[in-house]
Amino acid sequence: MSEQAVKANPYVPMPVTLESVAIENDAKDLKTFALAFENDEDREQFSYLPGQFAEVSILGVGESPFGIASSPTEKEHLLFTVKRAGSVTQELHRLDTGRRLGVRGPLGNSFPWDRIAGKNIIIVSGGFAFTTLRSSITYMLDETNRDRFGDITVLYGVRSPGELLYKETIAQWKERSDIGINLTVDREPDEPWDGTVGLVPNVLRDLGPSPKGAIVLVCGPPIMIRFTIPVLKELGFGEDDIILSLENRMKCGIGKCGRCNVGPKYVCVDGPVFTLAELQQLPAEY
Amino acid sequence: MSDTVGCTIEKKLLPTLLLNESKHSRVFIPKQSDGVTEYAVFGKGDTPDLEAGQSRLSPKSFFFPQTETLYAFDYDTIEPSASEEAAEAPVVLFAVRPCDSASFELLDQVFGPENHGYHDPYYEKKRDNTIVVTLACNKPGSTCFCTSVGGDPAGTRGADVLAFDLEDRLYLEGLTTKGKEFLARNGEVLKEAAETDREVANTLASSARESMPAVEYDRATVKKNLDDQFDNPIWEKITNTCIGCGACTYLCPTCHCFDICDEERHYKGRRIRTWDSCQYAQFTKHASGHNPRPTKTERLRQRFMHKFSYTVESVDEVYCVGCGRCVRYCPVNLDIREVLREFSST
After folding, report:
1. Does the structure's ipTM exceed the value 0.85?
2. Using the beta-carbon criterion (under 8 Å), do B293 and A254 form an inter-chain contact?
């Protein structure tokens, strides 16, 4: 198809090559896929912000939406960390590098970077929902951006040390003085562990970040979110300053196929990022 | 109705008009067989069945087919689908009922770029290439309730030409540029209408309107009640008989949910979209197994919330045109009008 036709047709993916695959966890059901655009125009046109997602296609199998784990400051690759679950992700996990895939996007809104600028940022995350937060942290720490943000505090919890995503990247962040990294595991691990032990909401309470001039990004499993919100409120965070990212089943990603709605909002085009204040206006169908 | 006086055509000349059109367009007319009305391709010798009433299936499938190839692919290339190219051929939809043509405008708002800037080239091409000739209803059916949801048996919404059945003739008005061109190029079989023709058309329209049940649906009240009573246990009662077949969504002229899936064989394949339905459990089920709408109750509620609350909020439209197909064909007699009544008390 001609370049123009591709742009006029949001259903047609852009060709990308699978450059590398990294196993992220001990269970080996989480892998990070690095994709490179085949066409320069596509790479330039794919202008995104942390918090957005894209549809990744394996032609003949299908496509699925994933949050973008790379940062726009990382020019060479798009990263997606994918848990093996359904038919598309199972096939993805079987692929070798060099395989051609498709990408549609970027899709959805992003974290509200205009509002985040100038504030202290607290990141609260659990499990493999950390992907778009990896994007966000990398973006903020980039030397062209770091001045735009205040203190960055990260709290990231996983079940066990082997489930931690992006171990090398996180190790590099820990070397830096301009970001606070707090890692926690659910219960006392068998292997060596230099982080804390405890569930995210409890560790957050102990950490007690100040809500003053701060905004908090929360991504994690529903159970973590349910117990984290009350702690954030206790700490004095307002509902407009608690930012969440939703996931719902999607197909088109462009607000037409009708399945990802939460009340009158579509997660694909109105989200996936919502403030707590916005979510409280919606039925809890997510 | 507009102030312009339209034109008339004798019914016996309709095949001539349609034959003229079929030289450059694919023309579809209502036909009845075994008591079922469907739109079928007009061929030489055919006469449109203007007594046939509403078609069983909504004509939304002309723009949004039940199954459609988005593109074909092989190992190296992605090619636009044949159906996308076929859409270049113009289409005349003859004798579409006003409820159904109104639904086209509602679908335009989903598939068109006003919805968050995204085009749907498959839908848009077919829509752009189609002339809609709407036939006003002289005898609304027993399950019709268009007037209760802002429609009219002589409604012009979504129509390029509006036609009235005056027994031996049709009275026609061109409403859009496309519609006026359609009439202009068929001038040889048309006559300028007399003022009395339009008066007769108006009379037929008002008697059709009066034959319909009184308007009892108040958009704002129903929306407010639906929103306030999201957790009302009445939804469980309403859902009791529902078997989750999804027929209502397939028959509905405004329902537009779809699935996208791939078919592949020997490194050649196609990506297709097919109608889907919010009434099916798989529709919203996450890969993790979690389902935001886990039972029929949430799914049935979604259908009503979507039509009478969510779209009112997002695009200021009710996504129901009152065609009554869901009432007529629901296997367990679930009645959308009764649901509206449940949520109508102030």
Report:
1. yes
2. no
